[in-house]
Specification:
Elements (H helix, E strand, L loop, with lengths): L3 E7 L5 H15 L6 E7 L11 H9 L15 H4 L2 E4 L2 H10 L3 H4 L2 E3 L19 H25 L1
Parallel strand pairs: 1-2, 1-3, 3-4
Helix pairs in contact: 1-6, 2-6
Bound molecules: 4-nitrophenyl phosphate.
Length: 157
């Protein structure tokens, strides 16, 4: 039985990517695909390694029924072998992850999360220095994008 592994990546791995992980996991669970799709998240910056997601992100997510329990970790070279798809949140993430990719084949696994959203935005904005609305916007984008991502991914299974 084919399995797929999906990695979400942002800068600190304490706001956007752990939220994406939780949003996608709920959709995958609802679709009955949790034994076929493995989900994780990581950051390009390791300064928050070991931490739970930012309390503002956890609170905003909790209001929508998501519990964020991921512990932050930096992306590692072996992630390019382990994961089939790597979804980044913004251009800076894209560039850093691209630079880490061991080969062109590995780099082809990288995509922008925003490509799965119907919006004029070109990236999922970093909410870290924003107010409450920034976190809601991130969750809105991720809920839309994760649904579209799942539609694409399930065709690959
Ligand atoms: P994230 O947000 O990349 O969505 O997890 C940030 C988290 C931490 C920092 C910046 C963005 N920081 O500068 O520590």
């Amino acid at each position: 039985m084919k399995r797929l592994r999906i990695l979400f990546v942002c800068l600190g791995n304490i706001c956007r990517s752990p939220a994406a992980e939780a949003v996608f996991r709920r959709l995958v669970d609802k679709a009955g695909l949790s034994d076929r799709i493995e989900i994780d998240s990581a950051g390009t910056y390791g300064g928050h390694a070991g931490e739970l997601p930012d309390p503002r992100m956890r609170a905003a997510a909790f209001r929508r029924g998501y519990e964020l329990t991921h512990r932050a970790r930096p992306i590692r070279e072996e992630d390019f072998n382990r994961f089939d798809r790597i979804l980044v949140m913004d251009d800076s993430n894209y560039e850093r992850v691209h630079r880490l990719a061991p080969s062109r084949r590995h780099a082809e696994k990288i995509d922008r999360m925003i490509a799965f959203c119907k919006t004029d935005r070109t990236y999922v904005p970093d909410p870290y220095y924003e107010g409450h609305e920034g976190f809601e916007l991130v969750l809105d984008l991720l809920e839309e994008g994760c649904a579209a991502l799942l539609e694409e991914v399930r065709r690959e299974l």
